[in-house]
Specification:
Elements lengths: L1 H31 L5 H16 L4 H8 L12 H21 L6 H16 L24 H31 L5 H45 L27 H17 L2 H10 L5 H20 L6 H16 L6 H31 L1
Helix pairs in contact: 1-2, 1-4, 1-7, 1-8, 1-9, 1-10, 1-11, 2-7, 2-8, 3-7, 4-5, 4-12, 5-12, 6-10, 6-11, 7-8, 7-10, 10-11
């Protein structure tokens, strides 16, 4: 019982770090354009993150039952495995936050989960659900596993962010040629309030749900292992049965609420180091640029969340900002900063997986 509660606690700590790490990405543009002060932007992001986290549960279901084969994970070791996965993701979040690098909390969690599962199954690669082919006649995104839900979206979603932002910005440049600069700034300063709220909402629909899936996975394993056999009547809500064949795991309302509130609390702290990188160092932004980047990024995030794909908020908003800068001119981008960000992206999955793998092996030796 204590181990299960520890999983829940560590999962909420991860959600908290996710809040101040990834929310910086959601509000960096509105701060960089000086439409809102950092404090005002954080309040807006906190509220919209909370609302977004309560919408749907497709991403949570993917994390809970779409990446790891629970049959190859001993029920009595599932809690330790999840704790190691979460600790690896938390470590990577804090490390990249310290250096001001907008890396992906999502991929850190997925990497940690896969590395921990592989170690728990003693190197059996079947412990990770690599792919489930789409049903005949269905589109590729109806497939499952790490390939269809993580790897393919990891490549496509940043590209979509870049292209959509580039297109929106190009259309705006053509449409606003006769507008006075002051009118453009005032108009899009107002519109950016909505695009920033849209970005925060979309971030909530994707990121908060990842921890919901981890908590649900821990409760299913504990229920299966008989940990909750003699629970007091007031704690029966912890029991979570495995879904029936062909069905997906339903996420309890109390899990959604606690994760949403924890994400909101983390959001309230802010992530000034990352805001500085995205809002000031990557490209010089004005309200019209911020509006285009946020609208593009939020649209990609919301769409992938509805499809159950745990994509990276960081990757999407960063490439959206790049798309806006590229529409202005390629030299507007600071390529040395882009290179540092790309290295953080490349290293996230393998490093977090390696750390989680090592932690599980250490626990097994104790």
């Amino acid at each position: 019982m204590l181990l299960v509660l520890t999983v829940v606690l560590v999962a909420l700590i991860f959600t908290y770090t996710n809040g101040f790490h990834d929310t910086a990405n959601a509000i960096a543009t509105v701060v960089g354009t000086k439409v809102l002060t950092p404090r005002q932007a954080i309040i807006l992001a906190t509220i919209t993150n909370l609302l977004g986290a309560m919408v749907g549960a497709a991403v949570a279901k993917t994390i809970a039952s779409g990446l790891v084969d629970a049959k190859l994970i001993p029920p009595d070791f599932a809690s330790q495995m999840l704790i190691c996965a979460l600790l690896a993701a938390i470590f990577w979040n804090l490390l990249t936050w310290y250096f001001g690098l907008p890396s992906s909390s999502s991929h850190a969690l997925v990497g940690g989960l896969c590395g921990a599962a592989l170690a728990t199954a003693h190197g059996n690669w079947h412990a990770i659900i690599w792919s489930k082919a789409p049903e005949p006649g269905k589109y590729w995104w109806t497939g499952g596993g790490v390939l269809y839900k993580v790897v393919i979206p990891m490549v496509i979603s940043p590209a979509l962010g870049f292209l959509i932002a580039f297109f929106i910005m190009a259309v705006l440049y053509l449409s606003l040629q006769k507008w006075r600069p002051m009118t453009v700034t005032r108009t899009f300063g107002f519109l950016q309030l909505f695009s920033s709220g849209y970005m925060g909402f979309s971030h909530g629909t994707n990121d908060a749900q990842k921890t919901m899936g981890i908590i649900a996975l821990a409760l299913v394993a504990a229920t299966k292992a008989g940990t909750f056999a003699n629970l007091p009547e007031g704690l029966h809500f912890l029991k979570t049965d495995e879904p029936l064949p062909g069905k997906t795991l339903e996420i309890a309302l109390w899990i959604k609420v606690i994760c949403a509130l924890t994400m909101a609390a983390g959001t309230a702290i802010g992530g000034w180091r990352i805001i500085k990188t995205l809002g000031h160092k990557l490209v010089k932004l004005q309200p019209v640029h911020g509006f285009a980047a946020e609208t593009a990024g939020a649209t990609v995030l919301f769409g992938t969340a509805m499809l159950g794909m745990p994509v990276s908020t960081t990757h999407v908003i960063t490439t959206s900002i790049m798309g806006v800068g590229a529409a202005k001119r390629w030299s507007a981008l600071k390529w040395s900063v882009v290179e540092r960000i790309l290295w953080a992206w490349i290293l996230t999955l393998p490093v977090s997986a390696g750390i989680a793998y090592g932690l599980v092996k250490l626990v097994q030796l104790l």
